[in-house]
Recover the amino acids of this structure.
C-alpha cells in the first residue's frame, strides 16, 4: 500500500523516484505554463534526471518535461512511502 | 496525398498575406510536436505562404489545397499548449478563431500522448467553432503499445475523430472528407466541454453578470468569464478597459478571492481528459524502456550530453567547410565574377559608371546574396533536421547551465552557435526561443560570434601583421569576442531586461524519424525569405557603397568614400588608423571580407603577397591590433542587419545593434591601441 507523506520540494527528489504534486506555489504566469504542460496538484510525476544542480527532467502525464531548478523549487511534492 | 492538392494558380506571385478571398478557411490547431506542420505541409505542399502574423514576430503559415474539386484556405495556427495568454502564440491562435471564424478547426493530437495533447482540445471545444479531431501518430502509439479507439473517443468528445498518420499520409483524405462534410452540414457542432466545480461555475456566472453588454461581440461571455478566473492577462486588460470603475472593482473583488481558480480549472480539464482516456485508450504495459529513454541516457547526460553536442556541431562545421565553403568559392568565381565580366562586356560602349554600377554594384550585390546560400542551406538543414528528430530540446537542456549565466536559456545556444558559420542563420534561428525578451537578447549579442567571413579577414591580416605570432593574436581575438559575448549578455540582461529570466519549462519530445518534406520545406522557406527580404536591402546598400567608392572621379582613391576616410582621419588617429584603414572598415559593411580587397585597392592593387609586405611595413603593431579588434567587433554586416530588421519587425533593433557595435568596437579598439602603445608596441 502506497501512502503519500513527507512533503518536499520537487528539486530535492532523486532520480527514479515517483512523487505526487501537492501544490504549485508561484505567480500565475509560471502556474499557467506548468498546468498547460500537465502539472496540477494530485498528479503523479516521475523524476527522470536530477543531478542536484542545473535543470532536471520529469515525466508528467506521459510527457518528458525539462524544468529549471528555480522552477522546480517552487513545486511542493509528496513522497510515496511504503507502509 | 498527391491528389489532396493540385497546382494552385497563384496569379499575383503569391503576394497574399492573408487568405484567398471567397474560399472557405480551415484552421489547424495543436500543441507543439504533434505533427501539425507535417499535416500542413502534406496538404499544401509548395502552395504555402510564410509571413508574419499582422503586427507580430510570430511566423504565419497559410496555404491553399484542393479536395474533390473545391479549394480551401488552410491556416496553420501557432503550436500552443493551451489557449490562455501565456505567449503571443496563444493569443494569436484564439484571436484568429474568434475573429476570423474559420469554417472548421482541425485539432491535431498525438495518439501516443493523448492525455496532454487533449488539453488544448478541452479549450477548443469551448469556442464557437466546429472542431474535428485529427488523431495523429497512430503508428508511434502502436509502436509504444498504446491502443486508441477513435470511435470511443468520438463518442466521449461528441466531435468527429479521424485516425491519421501524417508522416505516412494515412487517413488524411478521410480527415478532409469528414471536415468538409461537417462544414457543409453543421448538424454536429457542440462538443462536450469539461465540467467545472460548482463554486467555479457560480463565480463564472457572477462575472458574466458584470460583463454582459460590455465585451466586444466576438468574445463569448462564458469563455471570457472563465479566462478571467484563469487570470488571463489579455482578457483582464480588456475587461478593465471596457468596464466602468465600479464594475471593475466588483470584478476585481471576485477575482481576488479566486486566485487559486486557475489551478482548479486546469485540474478539472485534466479530470475530463482522464475520463475520456479511460474510455478510449488501452495501455497494456507500462515501464518499458523506449528508444527515447535509451538515447536520452547519453543525450541529456551532463557530461556525455555535452560530448555528443560537440560531436554533432563538429560535424555541422565539417559539412560547412568541406561542402559549403568550396561551393561558395565556386559560385563566387564561376557565377558572380563571370556575370560581372559578362555585364561589363555587354556594356562596353555604355558610360563607365553605368557598367561599373551594374557589374560591381548590382551583380556583386546579388552575388553576395547567392554566395551566402550554400552555408545558409547547410545550417538551415542541420538545424531543421535536429529540430525535427527532437534533438534540439536536448541540446538546449544540456546547455542551460552555461547559458543561465547570461540570463538566457539553453534554447539560445544553438542559434548562437550557428553564428560561427554566419550571423544570418543565427539571427533567423532565434525563432526557436519562445520568450521574446530572451529572443531579442540573443539577436543583439549574436553578432559577437566571429563568423567565417570575419575569421577570413583575421586569417589574412594577422599573419601579415604579426608573422609567427598570428596564431596567438587570432586566438586572442576569438577569445575577446566570446568574453564580450558573455559580458554583453549579462549587461544587456541587467539593463534592458532587468535581470528577468522567463521560466525554463520545456517539453522533451519523443525522438522520431525525420520527415524529409518538413525539413525540405523549412530550408526552402527560410532561404526564400532570406533572398526576398534581406536580398533587397543587401542589393540597395551594395549599390550605394559602390557609388560612394566610385564617384566623383571614378577611382576609389579619390571617391567620396575615401574622402570620408580622410575626413575621419583625425578620429581614426585615436584608434591608430590611417584613412585607408577607415575606408577598409567602412567597406566591410556590405561583406566583412571586403576589408582585405579594399586595402588591396588602396595599396595600389598589388598581389596578396605584395599587400602583406606593404601592410607590415606601413602599420605599427599597435595600429594593426587595433584594426583587427575593431574589424572583429564592428557593426554587423548588412545581411545580418537586414535579417535583424526582418525578425524583429522594425528598424528599432537593427539601429540599436548598429549603435551598440559602433560604440563597442571603437572603445575596444581605442583601448587596445593605447594599451599596446603603453606597452611599447
Amino acid at each position: 500500500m502506497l501512502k503519500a507523506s513527507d512533503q518536499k520540494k520537487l528539486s530535492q527528489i532523486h532520480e527514479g523516484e515517483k512523487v505526487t504534486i501537492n501544490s504549485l506555489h508561484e505567480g500565475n504566469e509560471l502556474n499557467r505554463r506548468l498546468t498547460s504542460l500537465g502539472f496540477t496538484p494530485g498528479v503523479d510525476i516521475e523524476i527522470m534526471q536530477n543531478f542536484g544542480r542545473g535543470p532536471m527532467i520529469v515525466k508528467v502525464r506521459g510527457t518528458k518535461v525539462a524544468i529549471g531548478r528555480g522552477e522546480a523549487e517552487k513545486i511542493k511534492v509528496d513522497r510515496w512511502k511504503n507502509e | 496525398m498527391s491528389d489532396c492538392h493540385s497546382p494552385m494558380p497563384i496569379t499575383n506571385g503569391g503576394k497574399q498575406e492573408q487568405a484567398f478571398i471567397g474560399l472557405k478557411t480551415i484552421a489547424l490547431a495543436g500543441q507543439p510536436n504533434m505533427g501539425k506542420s507535417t499535416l500542413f505541409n502534406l496538404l499544401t505542399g509548395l502552395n504555402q505562404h510564410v509571413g508574419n502574423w499582422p503586427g507580430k514576430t510570430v511566423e504565419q503559415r497559410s496555404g491553399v489545397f484542393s479536395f474533390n474539386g473545391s479549394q480551401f484556405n488552410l491556416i496553420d495556427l501557432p503550436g500552443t499548449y493551451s489557449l490562455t495568454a501565456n505567449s503571443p502564440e496563444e493569443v494569436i491562435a484564439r484571436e484568429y478563431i474568434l475573429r476570423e471564424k474559420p469554417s472548421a478547426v482541425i485539432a491535431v493530437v498525438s495518439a501516443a500522448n493523448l492525455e496532454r495533447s487533449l488539453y488544448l482540445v478541452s479549450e477548443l471545444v469551448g469556442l464557437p467553432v466546429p472542431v474535428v479531431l485529427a488523431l495523429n501518430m497512430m503508428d508511434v502509439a502502436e509502436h509504444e503499445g498504446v491502443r486508441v479507439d477513435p470511435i470511443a473517443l468520438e463518442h466521449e468528445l461528441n466531435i468527429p475523430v479521424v485516425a491519421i498518420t501524417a508522416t505516412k499520409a494515412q487517413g488524411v483524405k478521410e480527415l478532409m472528407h469528414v471536415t468538409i462534410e461537417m462544414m457543409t452540414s453543421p448538424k454536429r457542432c457542440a462538443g462536450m466541454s469539461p465540467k467545472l466545480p460548482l463554486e467555479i461555475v457560480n463565480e463564472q456566472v457572477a462575472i458574466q453578470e458584470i460583463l454582459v453588454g460590455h465585451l466586444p461581440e466576438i468574445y463569448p461571455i462564458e469563455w471570457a468569464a472563465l479566462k478571467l478566473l484563469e487570470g488571463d492577462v489579455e482578457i483582464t486588460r480588456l475587461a478593465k478597459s471596457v468596464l466602468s470603475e465600479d464594475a471593475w472593482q466588483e470584478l476585481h473583488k471576485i477575482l481576488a478571492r479566486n486566485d487559486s481558480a486557475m489551478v482548479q480549472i486546469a485540474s478539472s480539464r485534466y479530470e475530463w481528459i482522464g475520463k475520456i482516456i479511460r474510455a478510449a485508450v488501452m495501455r497494456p504495459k507500462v515501464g518499458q524502456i523506449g528508444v527515447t529513454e535509451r538515447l536520452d541516457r547519453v543525450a541529456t547526460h551532463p557530461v556525455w550530453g555535452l560530448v555528443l553536442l560537440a560531436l554533432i556541431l563538429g560535424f555541422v562545421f565539417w559539412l560547412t567547410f568541406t561542402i559549403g565553403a568550396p561551393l561558395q568559392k565556386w559560385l563566387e568565381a564561376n557565377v558572380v565574377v563571370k556575370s560581372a565580366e559578362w555585364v561589363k562586356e555587354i556594356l562596353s560602349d555604355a558610360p563607365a559608371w553605368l557598367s561599373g554600377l551594374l557589374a560591381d554594384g548590382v551583380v556583386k550585390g546579388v552575388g553576395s546574396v547567392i554566395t551566402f546560400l550554400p552555408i545558409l542551406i547547410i545550417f538551415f538543414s542541420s538545424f531543421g533536421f535536429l529540430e525535427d528528430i527532437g534533438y534540439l530540446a536536448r541540446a538546449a537542456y544540456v546547455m542551460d547551465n552555461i547559458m543561465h549565466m547570461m540570463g538566457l536559456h539553453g534554447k539560445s545556444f544553438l542559434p548562437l552557435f550557428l553564428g560561427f558559420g554566419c550571423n544570418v542563420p543565427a539571427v533567423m534561428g532565434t525563432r526557436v526561443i519562445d520568450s521574446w525578451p530572451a529572443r531579442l537578447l540573443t539577436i543583439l549579442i549574436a553578432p559577437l560570434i566571429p563568423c567565417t567571413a570575419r575569421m577570413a579577414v583575421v586569417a589574412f591580416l594577422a599573419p601579415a601583421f604579426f608573422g609567427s605570432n598570428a596564431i596567438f593574436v587570432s586566438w586572442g581575438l576569438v577569445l575577446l569576442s566570446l568574453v564580450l559575448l558573455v559580458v554583453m549578455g549579462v549587461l544587456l540582461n541587467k539593463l534592458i531586461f532587468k535581470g528577468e529570466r522567463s521560466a525554463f519549462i520545456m517539453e522533451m519530445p519523443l525522438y522520431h524519424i525525420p520527415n524529409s518534406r518538413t525539413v525540405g520545406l523549412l530550408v526552402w522557406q527560410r532561404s526564400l525569405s532570406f533572398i526576398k527580404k534581406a536580398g533587397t536591402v543587401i542589393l540597395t546598400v551594395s549599390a550605394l557603397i559602390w557609388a560612394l567608392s566610385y564617384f566623383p572621379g571614378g577611382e576609389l582613391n579619390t571617391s567620396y568614400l575615401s574622402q570620408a576616410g580622410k575626413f575621419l582621419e583625425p578620429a581614426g588617429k585615436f584608434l591608430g588608423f590611417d584613412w585607408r584603414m577607415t575606408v577598409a572598415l567602412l567597406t566591410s559593411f556590405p561583406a566583412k571580407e571586403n576589408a582585405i580587397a579594399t586595402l588591396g585597392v588602396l595599396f595600389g592593387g598589388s598581389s596578396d603577397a605584395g599587400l602583406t609586405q606593404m601592410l607590415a611595413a606601413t602599420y605599427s603593431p599597435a595600429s594593426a591590433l587595433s584594426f583587427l579588434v575593431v574589424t572583429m567587433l564592428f557593426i554587423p554586416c548588412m545581411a545580418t542587419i537586414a535579417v535583424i530588421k526582418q525578425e524583429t519587425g522594425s528598424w528599432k533593433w537593427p539601429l540599436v545593434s548598429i549603435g551598440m557595435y559602433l560604440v563597442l568596437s571603437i572603445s575596444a579598439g581605442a583601448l587596445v591601441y593605447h594599451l599596446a602603445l603603453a606597452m611599447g608596441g
